[in-house]
Write a structure and sequence with these properties.
20 helices; 607 residues; single chain; 24 strands; eight-stranded antiparallel β-sheet; binds fructose -6-phosphate; six-stranded antiparallel β-sheet; 39% helix; alpha/beta
Length: 607
């Protein structure tokens, strides 16, 4: 995944235009890139690993001939970064090239089917099935448009693609399903892009390709059809008024806000993880004598929440531990029977890697959960899973936290099944609800954002916050605190609510703000009492509650609501959304830049 771009020019060479368009997405981060062009001499493809300009200096991308070209920058999800796995991908005869952004869920079945019919594959990507499917349809006598349409009908997942074909060097066929794709319309060219900024300096006239629409672009026109019934779609270009800087963030003021809003999509991607990887990791967890969940910062908070998930549904006791403490605390006890599940967005955090290296030398089994395929963590792990969140630019981790939680909830559920620990009925119910996570998060964002913004306005002058939660919500309290702390420099404190009598209660004076995380789980009754106790000392309570929780709504000073009737182990995924928004809007209200927190970097790789 990451970005696709293409153009059909009236005259001139398209490759340098595509190269410049891909470079405009440089800030997003990627591991490899490539381009394909078509002209009367056929199809031409160049690609490689690294930054776009490095690839250009190695392979002279701009020399690709022809006025039609497509390009791709890649963030690996299926298959590590390599020349073979870089896009464009081609069919057996090198006539069709495809760039693809997204995930093909059923690629393993399609690949096996195509291989049984003698198609040969060069990469480990899910994307490569697409040119081979198109190739088969072309061989049946279909033209490129119909051949692509028939191929798309076989694909499951979410994706945007662009296709060029040596024997029809006058067009690009493109399509999107649950992904983003926009055409740019100029007098001398037509562009397609997964991200509008790629063509924004060239034209401000844009046509949005909606879900399940297929577009064919030529130098002077474009045709759009609904893929299902092939009804034509008539769309006129609209003027984009975003300045380039805002366009990079898809219209959001900051990457942090964009990434908070990316969560429904990134969570949909975590539901598309390949069964075989989840099953394999589940088997390793099941066999382990002891399991350590090792990570730093936000990833550690995900581990803490996951320890409740594993214990509650799979009856597996795990040890969540901050990677910086791992060697000191557990170093001597690690052995061949130990299993380390290391969780790291970047896969490069020094403390996490040091803990992993120590455990590896003691012959422990290393499992990895990381957003970056090809990172050091993927290389040292026996099995790894990439939750497919896409690159995260904001220094404050947001979408990768909820993706880590969703992935570990799926692992916990699989382990519960394997161990026969909970009834089939319970498993079915949790599975059904897990599928609803993305829409539930979407709904929280739609209904609560304005309310959170008002709460931030009200509390922006506060110098200190206490965050309290019980059970799994202790992890949410920690993460809510970290978000506020790193974007606002407000020295806040998270505590297990049950511990408040052992110190924190002494802090409370009239108007002292306390954030409570209150899902309706087995801790609810106690949390109600906790709120009453701090209210009695004069605290101002901001509560994160489930919809319809009148008990807490009537005693809290302010509240935000999250979806109700979801499995309790999933509550951190929902409850953290208003807290991410709270940190964001507090920073904005206080005139701080949430994308550039003081003294912090995205990934801590030095010590
Ligand atoms: C918090 C944050 C950091 C990271 C931590 C671990 O918003 O971004 O605390 O969570 O540095 O990073 P990874 O997950 O890359 O190992």
């Amino acid at each position: 995944m990451v970005g696709i771009f293409g153009c059909v020019l009236k005259d001139g060479n398209a490759a340098p235009v595509v190269h410049a368009g891909l470079r405009r997405l440089e800030h997003i981060g990627y591991d490899s890139a490539g381009e394909a062009s078509v002209n009367a001499d056929g199809l031409h493809v160049r690609k490689g690993v690294g930054r776009i300009d490095e690839i250009h200096s190695n392979f002279s991308l701009d020399d690709l001939p022809g006025r039609i070209a497509v390009g791709h920058i890649r963030w690996a999800t299926h298959g590590a970064p390599s020349n073979e796995n870089a896009h464009p991908h081609v069919d057996c005869e090198g006539q069709i090239a495809v760039v693809h952004n997204g995930i093909i869920e059923n690629y393993a079945e399609l690949k096996a089917e195509l291989e049984s019919r003698q198609h040969s594959f060069k990469s480990k990507t899910d994307s490569e099935v697409i040119p081979h499917l198109i190739e088969e349809n072309l061989k049946k006598g279909l033209g490129l448009v119909k051949a692509t349409r028939e191929a798309i009908k076989r694909l499951e997942g979410s994706f945007a693609i662009a296709v060029v074909y040596a024997k029809e060097p006058d067009k690009i066929v493109c399509f999107q399903k649950e992904s983003s794709l926009t055409l740019g319309i100029a007098s001398n060219a037509t562009y397609l892009a997964s991200d509008t900024p790629m063509f924004l300096p060239l034209t401000k006239e844009a046509v949005t390709i909606d879900n399940q629409e297929l577009a064919v672009i030529y130098d002077e026109k474009y045709d759009i059809h609904q893929i299902g019934d092939w009804s034509p779609v008539d769309k006129k270009p609209e003027l984009i008024e975003w300045v380039p800087e805002k366009a990079e963030k898809q219209g959001y003021a900051h990457f942090m806000l964009k990434e908070i809003h990316d969560q429904p999509v990134s969570l949909r991607n975590t539901l598309r993880l390949q069964d075989q990887y989840l099953d394999l990791m589940t088997t390793f967890l099941d066999r382990a004598n002891e399991v350590f969940l090792v990570a730093c910062g936000t990833s550690y908070h995900a581990c803490l929440a996951a320890s409740y998930m594993f214990s509650k549904v799979a009856f597996l006791s795990t040890h969540p531990i901050a990677a910086s403490e791992f060697i000191e605390q557990e170093g001597k006890s690690i052995n061949i029977g130990s299993t380390i599940l290391a969780v790291s967005q970047s896969g490069e955090t020094t403390d996490t890697l040091a803990a992993v290296e120590h455990a590896r030398l003691q012959a422990a089994t290393i499992l990895g959960l990381t957003n970056v395929l090809g990172s050091t963590l993927t290389r040292v792990s026996r099995v790894y899973i990439c939750p497919q969140s896409g690159p995260e630019i904001g220094v404050a981790a947001t979408k990768t936290f909820t993706a880590q939680l969703s992935t570990m909830a799926q692992l916990a559920l699989r382990l519960a099944k394997l161990r026969g620990k909970i009834s089939n009925k319970e498993i079915d119910l949790i599975e059904e609800k897990i599928a609803l996570i993305p829409t539930a998060v979407e709904r929280i964002l739609q209904t609560q954002e304005e309310k959170v913004r008002q709460i931030a306005k009200k509390y922006r002058g506060q110098k200190f916050f206490l965050f309290l939660g019980r059970g799994i919500s202790r992890a949410t309290a920690l993460e809510g605190t970290l978000k506020l702390l790193e974007t606002n420099y407000i020295p806040s404190m998270p505590f297990a609510a049950g511990e408040k009598e052992n110190g924190p209660i002494g802090l409370i004076t009239e108007g002292f703000p306390v954030v409570f995380i209150c899902p309706r789980d087995e801790t609810h009754e106690k949390i109600v009492n906790d709120i009453k106790e701090v209210k009695a000392q004069g605290a101002s309570v901001i509560a994160v509650v489930e919809e319809g929780d009148e008990t807490i709504k009537t005693i809290a000073d302010d509240y935000v609501e999250v979806v109700k009737d979801m499995p309790k182990i999933l509550s951190p995924i929902f409850c953290i959304i208003p807290l991410q928004l709270f940190a964001y809007y507090m920073a904005v209200e206080r005139g701080l830049d949430p994308d550039r927190p003081r003294h912090l970097t995205k990934s801590v790789t030095v010590k």
